[in-house]
Amino acid sequence: MKIKVSHEVPLQLLNDSKQFNDYDYCLPHLLDIHPKYEAYFRQAKKEGRYIIMDNSLHELGEAYNTKRLIYWVNELKPNEFIVPDVWENSVHSIRNAKEWSKIELPKEVTKVAVVQGKSYTEFASGYQSYKWFGYEKIAFSYGASWFVECFQHPNLYIAKMMGRLKTITNLRKYNIISDMDRVHLLGCNVPQEYLYYKDFPFIETIDTSNPVIHGLEGIRYSEGGLLHKSNQKIDKDFTQTVTPKQKEDILYNVEFNFTYYNSLLFSIYLLCVEGP
Question: CA-CA distances (angstroms) from residue 40 to 22, 36, 89, 235, 247?
Fold first, then answer.
């Protein structure tokens, strides 16, 4: 199964993104700030584009206002909605997911819960809890400190990349994740990570602003990907004017990304994925 990818872009490039995104990824707090952003998603819904709505935790440091989230889910009726989670807090994220499992949303909206935690045990417990609550799809964030602990490497971004891979690999190994499950990957540290997931049939969707942020900063992906990650967030200069050179660099990185995802010539040897 082909993994579907969406790249978050500045306001100026929203319409262009239809040409290279498999679906639209919506940051709800921006709907209340930028009328053009709201208009884009209303039109995308009319056109029948697939929409996944986030809860904006990554951008805001905490999930967006509950009343506004419910309002926008009911207004836009996205295909999927990522329910509020709490960064690296398994207990509160599980509690939130349980509460949101009881909140009535439009029937066409699939609720997605995010696994959070500071240990393999917490990741496993969270994943199992969400399945017990009836969640049909579950997401993994990209930057948990646990990933660095479980795969030590001198390069922080490689450690996070391999740590998430190792965690997901072990959850699959011990039958906590089934190949029939549906999983979303929230963001990435470095683009080469996704090569490792080519043979994971349960990974359905990915969202990332990585190719776009680096393109805006004049950085093009090298043949081996990246060894560092910009800390810039896509919403911080959302209305910026994108120059022709920046757009060229963004499109280069996006195309590079899709080549990585879909390459049939690249073989991966998984390292150090034995045991939690």
Answer: 16, 6, 33, 16, 19
Q: Determine the residue type at 76.
A: L
One-letter amino acid for residue 83 of the chain: V
- Answer whether residue 275 is part of any domain: no
| Residue 225, Ramachandran bin (φ over 0: left; ψ between -120 and 50: alpha; else beta) | left
- Is residue 238 classed as helix, strand or coil in its secondary structure? coil
CATH number, position 108: 3.20.20.105
Nearest to 112 by CA among 89, 91, 134: 134
Smallest CA-to-CA distance from 186 within 209, 168, 167 is with: 209
Rounded distance between C-alpha atoms, residue 122 and residue 128, angstroms: 10
Per-residue pLDDT of the chain (276 residues; tens, 9 = 90+): 688 999 999 999 999 999 999 999 999 999 999 999 999 999 999 999 999 999 999 999 999 999 999 999 999 999 999 999 999 999 999 999 999 999 999 999 999 999 999 999 999 999 999 999 999 999 999 989 999 999 999 999 999 999 999 999 999 999 999 999 999 999 988 888 888 888 899 999 999 999 999 999 999 998 878 888 888 889 888 999 999 999 999 999 998 877 665 553 334 333 334 444
**pTM score > 0.85 for this model?**
yes
18, part of any domain: yes
Domain residues for 243? 4-262
Cβ proximity of 94 and 126 under 8 Å = yes
Count the domains in the chain.
1
Q: Residue 110 falls within a domain, yes or no?
A: yes
Specify if 274 maps to a domain.
Answer: no
Q: What is the phi/psi pair of residue 241, to 5°?
A: -80, 125
Q: Are the C-beta atoms of 116 and 139 separated by less than 8 Å? A: no
CA distance 44 to 134: 28
